[in-house]
Amino acid sequence: MTERVKLWQALNRALDAEMAADDAVFVLGEDVGLYGGSYRVTEGLYARYGEWRVRDTPISEGSFTGLGVGAALAGARPVVEIMTVNFALLALDAIINMAAKIPFMSGGQFPMPLVVRTPGGVARQLAAQHSQRLEHTLMNVPGLRIVTPATPQDAWWQLRQAIRSDEPIVMLEHELLYFDEGPLDEGLPPPPMHRALVRREGEDLTLLTYLKGVGQSLEAAERLAAEGISVEVIDLRSLRPIDWERCMASLEKTHRLLVVEEDCGFAGAGAELVARLSERAFYLLDAPPRRVAGLDIPTPYNGRLEAATIPQVDDIVQAARELCQA
Amino acid sequence: MERDQLRAMLRDMLLARRFEERAAEEYTKGHIAGFLHLYPGEEAVAVGSLHAAEPSDWIVSTYREHVHAMVRGMSPRAVMAELFGKRTGCSRGMGGSMHLFDRALRFTGGYAIVGETYPVAIGIGYAVAMRGLPEAVLCFFGDGAVNQGTFHESLNMARLWNLPVLFLCENNHYQIGTEIHRHSAVAEVYRRACAYRIPARRIDGMDVLAVYEATREALAQIRAGNGPQLLEFETYRFRGHSMSDAGAYRPRVELEAWQRRDPLAAQPAAEALGYPTQEQIDAAGEDCIGRFCRHLGREGVVAEDELEALRREVDEIVEDSVRFALESPEPDLQDAWDSLYAARGKEVLL
Ligand SMILES: Cc1ncc(C[n+]2csc(CCOP(=O)(O)OP(=O)(O)O)c2C)c(N)n1
Ligand SMILES: [Mg+2]
Question: Which ipTM value was assigned to this complex?
Answer without folding.
Answer: 0.95
